[in-house]
Design brief:
- Among the domains are: 138 residues, Probable tRNA modification gtpase trme, domain 1 (Gyrase A, domain 2, 2-Layer Sandwich), CATH 3.30.1360.120; 86 residues, Beta Barrel (Elongation Factor Tu (Ef-tu), domain 3), CATH 2.40.30.
- The longest helix is centred in the first third of the chain and has 10 residues.
- The radius of gyration is 20 Å and the shape is globular.
- Helices cover 20% and strands 34% of the residues.
- The chain is of the alpha+beta class and 361 residues long.
- The N and C termini lie far apart (44 Å).
- The strands form four sheets. The protein has a six-stranded mixed β-sheet with strand order 11-12-13-10-4-14, with helices on both faces. It has a six-stranded antiparallel β-barrel with strand order 15-18-17-16-19-20.
């Protein structure tokens, strides 16, 4: 086993009191001295800064990049105008999700961000196309929360002009960066791609703002769970279809009707006939969380699914979970039982998200 890698912000995390853990082969802060709940609350009320430099950043160049990407993904990229980004996923021949990713039209190239745990797979997958695939040595930070616009616009005025899922180049402290208005918390915010040699300086500059505090993986997970956002490897994987995961909104109409991507036979069938199971929100009764792997049973005692993500929602002020149940039990308001340590615990199917998303559209 190789040693975990360190992002360019590793020493700054330690300086700021970050509790470092191995995550997807990278040493990352799970939280700082304030703790997960405080970091979560600060992001919801003001703004939090996350290091997401472990994610893979890729530049795609060549003829017909959009059309070639459409051969791997069930989304449309040919109509994607310059400065716009799109959430999508790679599908396998069986209609499962290989990974989810962000694709942006950067003008003379496409800019892609992939998950840390799947970066080698994803980059090799794109290298099967007849285009230039260049992995970038850049850092990536996220500034998320209602104060994010004011914080970013103080250094890069164009940030205030961007709408959700738009991207642009900007100058911060004399350094060219790429700012994209998106994120993984359900809050308004940005991801900023920065040359590695400049990220410490820019991060320190941003943290001078009184409304911005650093946050770690713990708060990032509780925030995305409240926002009903899927985590690859938990809520979506190679066996899960986009239809089961309620991700058909990321498949544009033409792709849903015509196919032409890996696994289209299964996905188009499920679009027409409905899937056997669906991703749902689950609210356990009481205060104890129900986590990944817990079985979900009908009130009659039959196993109907399982939890894929679960924990305590600080803003929701209670335990929350996501998981898959057979479609007949997926209606919000349905009573179910969670089998915890062999005993049934009551819970209710509820509509996602647990906490409303606050994107600037």
């Amino acid at each position: 086993m190789s040693e975990p890698r360190k992002t360019p912000l590793y020493d700054l995390h330690v300086e700021l009191g970050g509790k470092m853990v191995d995550f997807a082969g990278w040493m990352m802060p799970v939280n700082y001295t304030a703790g997960v709940a405080a970091e979560h609350k600060h992001c919801r009320e003001k703004a939090a800064l996350f290091d997401v430099s472990h994610m893979g950043q890729v530049e795609l160049r060549g003829e017909n990049v959009a059309e070639q990407l459409e051969s791997l993904c069930p989304s449309s990229f040919t109509p994607l105008v310059e400065g716009k980004a799109r959430y999508t996923f790679f599908t396998n021949p069986e209609g499962g999700i290989m990974d989810d990713l962000i694709v942006a039209n950067a003008g003379d190239h496409f800019f892609v961000v992939v998950n840390a745990s799947m970066r080698d797979q994803d980059i090799n997958h794109m290298r099967g196309l007849d285009i230039e695939v260049k992995e970038l040595s850049r850092a990536l930070i996220a500034v998320q929360g209602p104060a994010a616009e004011a914080i970013m616009a103080a250094h890069a005025p164009i940030a205030a002009e961007l709408k959700f899922m738009q991207t642009a180049l900007a100058d911060i402290g004399g350094v060219e960066v790429r700012i994209s208005r998106l994120g993984y918390t359900g809050e308004d915010g940005y991801e900023i791609s920065i040359p590695e040699e400049s990220v410490v300086e820019i991060t320190r500059l941003l943290l001078e703002h009184p409304d911005l505090e650093p946050a770690g993986l713990g708060a990032r997970d509780s925030l995305r769970l409240e926002a009903g956002l899927c985590l690859y490897g938990n809520d979506i994987d190679n066996d899960t279809s986009p239809v089961e995961a309620n991700l058909t909104w990321a498949m544009q109409k033409k792709r849903r009707e015509e196919g032409g991507f890996p696994g289209d036979k299964r996905i188009l069938r499920e679009l027409s006939e409905g899937p056997i199971r669906k991703l749902v929100g689950i609210k356990p009764e009481g205060r104890a969380p129900a986590r990944r792997g817990v079985e979900v049973a009908s009130v009659a005692g039959n196993i109907i699914g399982s939890i894929t993500s679960g924990g305590f929602g600080p803003t929701f002020e209670g335990p929350i979970s996501m998981g898959y149940v057979t479609t007949e039990f997926a209606e919000p308001g349905t009573s179910v039982n969670l089998i915890i340590r062999g005993k049934p615990r009551p819970a209710t199917i509820i509509k996602l998200p647990f906490v409303a998303q606050n994107y600037k559209r």
